[in-house]
What we know:
Number of domains: 2
Radius of gyration: 19 Å
Number of strands: 16
Distance between the termini: 28 Å
CATH superfamily of the largest domain: Mannose-Binding Protein A, subunit A
CATH architecture of the largest domain: Roll
Shape: elongated
Strand content: 25-35%
Strand order of the largest sheet: 1-2-8-5-6-4
Number of helices: 2
Oligomer: single chain
Amino acid sequence: MFIAVISESRTRLISAHLKPEYDNLYEVENAIGTYLNKFVRECGVMCLSNKRCVSFFYNNLTGMCILHSNPFTYTVMSFSEKGWKFYLSQERAGRCLVNFFYYRELDLCYEFKPPIRGSVIDTGFVCPGTELMRIDSNERHEHIKLVTADIGKVYPDGICIQGKKTQGKWAYNDGSTMEYFRWLPNEPSEKSNVIRMVRIKNYGWEHTRNWPTFSLEYFIRMTS
């Protein structure tokens, strides 16, 4: 299923892909909206035309359509009923790298990576990776909470994010100054230059030593 999405700066081709491994499962919590549509294509058009929509559920028997901003990689679906199908959107015009999710509301491309072990953290005590997630707003912080809601069932540790203190200031990987923080009490402890979001503490931030941690990588280009 494909649709051309017109924006102020460019035309983007967005597609929706059926994920049969989720047949007969669905979720209503944190939904963007719930609608009745005669055909799955109508549900798909609603999702692909909505900047907050990353995925949708459609019931072939009832015509119920549920839009979500969650790819459900690490969120367990709560309900089971015959007729439900799950579709995941994908940007097709080169905005994101292949296999990255695209959350258009924040112009954010991201992917999930395997755990990072302490043995591979570099000598500067910085989480390695192609590019770690840059958390610079409440909106981005809340979106990451949403898409990793049940990640603890797979990876029990925190989520490694950008941030390093050099010459007395905190900076992102590109050298720009950090102005947004979610430090937990008694942080930053400055035990290392590794920052991770602690899921069991409402995703607050802490400095961490060489403990295993989960990497959330991202790729983002600023639009003109």
